[in-house]
Amino acid sequence: MKAAVHRDYGPPEEVVYLEDIATPECGDDEVLVRVRAAGVNWADAVDEIGKPHLMRLGYGLRSPRKGVRGMEVAGIVEFVGQNVTQHAPGDEVFGWPTATFAEFTVVKEDQLIPMPSEASFEQAAGIPVAGCVALQAVRDIAHTQPGHKVLVNGASGGIGSFTVQIAKGIGADVTGVCSTTNLEFVGSLGVDRVIDYTAEDFTLGSQRYDLIVDMADKHTLAQRRKVLTPKGTLIPNSGEGGPVLGSVGRIIKAWMLSPFVGYKLRPFLSMTTTADLTALAGMTRDGALRPIVGATYPLAEAGAAIAHAGSGHARGKVVVVVD
């Protein structure tokens, strides 16, 4: 099969190549999926570049142990192991395996669910990781209620576009922050107001928010605290950070500061789950959630897709399409 493979750390466009490799073998409790689309995430760019250095403890100190990345998939079941009961060949499914930048990938049975017919393969492939981050931030961490004031900084990105829709679905009053070029797009997601960060600093406004989900993380904690309600929640969720610890350093710092501030400072590490992915699929079927695909790339250009997703300026999700 063909796969986008990387053998060294470096800029994705320079280290990712299309190669012929063996099709993965399917275990008794696994499903072989013919990949139709694979979502691209910030983490994929981090894996390719090899920074922060902390991540190399898991992926390989000098070079990557596994050559194929990708952590979201939508496709068609090709073969099932003898113990698999939930899926059958021909089923259209989506989920969160590994090594999805390829023509085939092997997935544990409980990491796949039926694909909503209302979504294309490209849309479904972009849901699992970003969708679960957004759902858990709004619902589980902030306990958002109808009428709450929510601000999403970085509302045009993959996680941001899910976050504003999920918050609106709960009944919150939602403000999206984005660049000038994305004002119309973010407005189309149903937000109550849009702030152009190039013209207005939301931390200088008079509005107070019950929840700030900040994908940009360009303001100090003190600046953001001023626009939180007394019991408000701040979720800093930028993937950026230092060259050694990366975003883990930001999370550790926030955890250390959290007991000493009056508001709720709640960084968290999201875990994709079957229950949450099922909930997101239901929202998609009901029309409450519209997965946004901002750019698609063929498998041969997976390196460019990863670089685009890692740039911090992608609109919606970036998706690799496999013919």
Distance between the termini: 12 Å
Largest sheet: 7 strands, mixed
What's the mean pLDDT score?
A: 88
In the CATH hierarchy, what is the superfamily of the largest domain? Medium-chain alcohol dehydrogenases, catalytic domain
- What is the CATH C-level name of the largest domain? Alpha Beta
Helix/strand/pairing category: alpha/beta
Radius of gyration: 20 Å
Strand segment tally: 15
Instruction: Pick out the low-confidence regions.
Output: 241-249
Helix segment tally: 11
Q: Any idea of the CATH topology of the largest domain?
A: Quinone Oxidoreductase, Chain A, domain 1
Shape: globular
Number of domains: 2
> What's the architecture of the largest domain in CATH terms?
Alpha-Beta Complex
Share of helical residues: 25-40%
What string, H for helix and E for strand, traces the elements in order?
A: EHEEHHEEEEHHEHEHEEHEHEHEHE
Strand content: 25-35%
In summary, what is this structure?
By secondary structure, this protein is an alpha/beta fold.
Which helices and strands, and how do they pair?
Layout lengths: L1 E5 L5 H4 E5 L9 E11 L1 H8 L6 H4 L13 E8 L11 E4 L8 E5 L3 E3 L6 H5 L2 H14 L7 E5 L4 H13 L2 E6 L4 H5 L5 E4 L12 E6 L6 H5 L2 E9 L10 H11 L6 E2 L8 H13 L6 E6 L3 H9 L6 E5 L2
Parallel strand pairs: 8-9, 8-11, 9-10, 11-12, 12-13, 14-15
Antiparallel strand pairs: 1-2, 3-4, 3-6, 3-15, 4-5, 5-7
